[in-house]
C-alpha cells in the first residue's frame, strides 16, 4: 500500500501492532516470546515517530474504519463464544446413574423323589468275591520253596551221566556220590562213598564232573544228596 511519507507508514505500522497486541484471540495463540517481540517492535516504531517530531495528525486511512469494525466484531464473537461455552459447561447435566438391577427371585428347592418307595425293602449289595491274581511259577522267589524237588535233583544228576561213565573207564559197579548243594543252587562238596570208585582216580574224575551241576535256588542253607550211578558194561 503506498504512503505519502514515512510518518504515515510508521503510524500504520504502529496501529497494526497495537491491534495485534489488543486482539484477545491472537494473544491466546501467541507465545509469550512472540508477544514480547511485538511489544519491542511497537516501541521501536514509536521511537521513530518521536524522532520525526509532532505534526498534524494524518488523515485516517481509507480502510481504517473497516479494520476497526472487523476487529471489534471478531472480539465480540470471541467473547460470545467464551460465554456460551462457560454457560454450557455450567448447565451440563450430571451423568445419569443407572438404577440398580432388580433382585432375582429366589428359586424354590426341588423336592427329591426317592427312586425306591419307602415301604419297599432294599436288598443289600452282593459281595464280590476276591480272586487272587495268578502268579507264574517263574516269578516265585527262592523263599517260596525250602528245597528242590526230587525231579529237579534227578534231572541234575542224569545230565552228568555221560561224563560219569566216561570217567569210570574200565571199572564197573556202583558209583555212590554224596553231593552238597548251597542255597544258591551251586555244588559246594562232592565225595565218593562206598563202592568201587571210592578213593580212586576214576572217583576223583567223577567228583570233578558232578561239581559242575546246578539246581534252582531254594530257602534252606544247604542240601546234601547221595545218588548212585550204576555202571555196567
Concise structural overview:
The protein is an alpha+beta fold. It has helices at residues 6-22, 24-29, 32-52, 64-91, 150-158, 161-168, 201-210, and strands at 173-182, 187-192, 222-231.
Number of strands: 3
CATH level 3 topology of the largest domain = Fusion Protein Consisting Of Minor Coat Protein, Glycine Rich Linker, Tola, And A His Tag, Chain: A, Domain 2
The number of helices is: 7
Number of domains: 2
How helix-rich are the residues, as a percent range? 40-55%
Average pLDDT for all residues: 75
Radius of gyration: 66 Å
Identify the CATH class of the largest domain. Alpha Beta
Please name the CATH architecture of the largest domain.
2-Layer Sandwich
Question: Termini, distance in Å?
Answer: 159 Å
Unreliable stretches: 128-140
Strand arrangement across the biggest beta sheet: 2-1-3
From the spread of the alpha carbons, the general shape counts as rod-shaped
Order of helices and strands: HHHHHHEEHE
Tell me about the largest β-sheet. 3 strands, antiparallel
Q: Beta-strand percentage? A: 5-15%
Structural category is alpha+beta
